[in-house]
Amino acid sequence: xxxxxxxxxxxxxxxxxxxxxxxxxxxxxxxxxxxxxxxxxxxxxxxxxxxxxxxxxxxxxxxxxxxxxxxxxxxxxxxxxxxxxxxxxxxxxxxxxxxxxxxxxxxxxxxxxxxxxxxxxxxxxxxxxxxxxxxxxxxxxxxxxxxxxxxxxxxxxxxxxxxxxxxxxxxxxxxxxxxxxxxxxxxxxxxxxxxxxxxxxxxxxxxxxxxxxxxxxxxxxxxxxxxxxxxxxxxxxxxxxxxxxxxxxxxxxxxxxxxxxxxxxxxxxxxxxxxxxxxxxxxxxxxxxxxxxxxxxxxxxxxxxxxxxxxxxxxxxxxxxxxxxxxxxxxxxxxxxxxxxxxxxxxxxxxxxxxxxxxxxxxxxxxxxxxxxxxxxxxxxxxxxxxxxxxxxxxxxxx
Length: 399
Prior knowledge:
Blueprint: E1 3-7, E2 10-12, H1 54-68, E3 71-72, H2 78-89, E4 102-106, E5 113-115, E6 120-124, H3 125-131, H4 135-151, H5 153-165, E7 171-173, E8 183-185, H6 187-216, H7 222-232, H8 249-255, H9 257-270, E9 285-288, E10 292-295, E11 300-310, E12 316-322, E13 346-350, E14 357-365, E15 376-382, E16 388-393
Parallel strand pairs: 4-6
Antiparallel strand pairs: 1-14, 2-14, 3-4, 5-6, 7-8, 9-11, 10-11, 11-14, 12-13, 12-15, 15-16
Helix pairs in contact: 2-4, 4-6, 4-7, 5-6, 6-9
C-alpha cells in the first residue's frame, strides 16, 4: 500500500573497525557502533590492581604496527590536534600511571575512533572529515576516547572477562547450591553479561567525556549532535540484542539525559559567554522520537513524529522520505537537491519551540488512485542549510 500527501498540517503539543584494525579490537574501545539493550542494574566494575600492566604491555607490542597504518594529525586535521591538546591539558590522570598522549589519523574513510591503553587516540579519516572544522564535534569524538584511557577500560574489560571465564557471574544453579555439581557455567549468560558490562563502560566513558569537554570549553550538546549525525548516516544498528557491546543512540540519549544537564551546568559556570568558549555556541540538537502511524479512514493515514529541539534559532524542516530502502540517503551530508530526494518526499517547516513538538503528516493511499509510489521509509530533520540533524525509521505501514 503506497501513500501520497493530501495535506501538511503541523500539530504542536506540549511536553519534549576496519580491516586489520579489527584483529585487535579487544585492545581498543570503539566509539560509534551501537545496538539496543534494555536498561538494567549496573554491574560491579573491577578495580585495576596497582601493579597491573598487561594493558600497557599489549599497547607496546601492537602500537608499532598501528603507527605504520596511521599518520600524524596535521594539515586538514590540525583542528582535531588543537582540540586534543586542549582536552589533554584538562586531564586528571590517575596516580601511578603514565600515558603518552598523541592523536593519529587512520586513512581508511571509515567513521570510527578508538584508543590504545597508553594514550594514543586513533580517528579514522571518514570520521575526521565529518568533524571537519568543528571544534565541538572533534571534542565529542576525542573526549570519549580519552575517558576510556583514563579509566583504563581495556584493563577493566580484561579483568571482567577473566572473571567470567572463571565462572563468576555466569553460573546457573540447579537444586541445592551447596552441592559441588549443582551449577554449571552458561556461555550465553556470560556473553550477555559481557555485553552489558561493555555497554555500561561506554556510557560511563560518555559521562566522563562530557565533563572533560565542559572543563575544556566545549559545550556538551556536541555529543548528542555527533551521535545524531552518525545515526542519520546509518552508522550502527537498532537491532535488539543482549550481546551488543555498545548502547544504541536512543539508549544513549535516555541514559545520558541527566549527564547532559550536569555537564551543561558546569560549562555555563566556566563559560558564561558561550560564544567566547573554545567550542563556540552550542549546536542545534534535535531529538526525534519513533513515529506513530494510525489509519483515520479506509484511504487516509496519519503519521506523527514527536521531537524536541535545543539551541534552535529559526526553523527546521521535517522530511518524510520515500525510497526503496531505509537510510538510503543517510550517507549524504545534504538531502535537498540530491538524486536521492525523490518527488514523493513530503516536507514541513517547524520552529520546534515547545518542549515537545509533534509533526503530523496526513497521507492518502495511492493504490486506490492507481498511482505508483515508493514506500515511505525514513523521517529526516534538516537545518536551514539542508544538513541532516536527525533521522528516525518509519514503521512499516500495514496493508
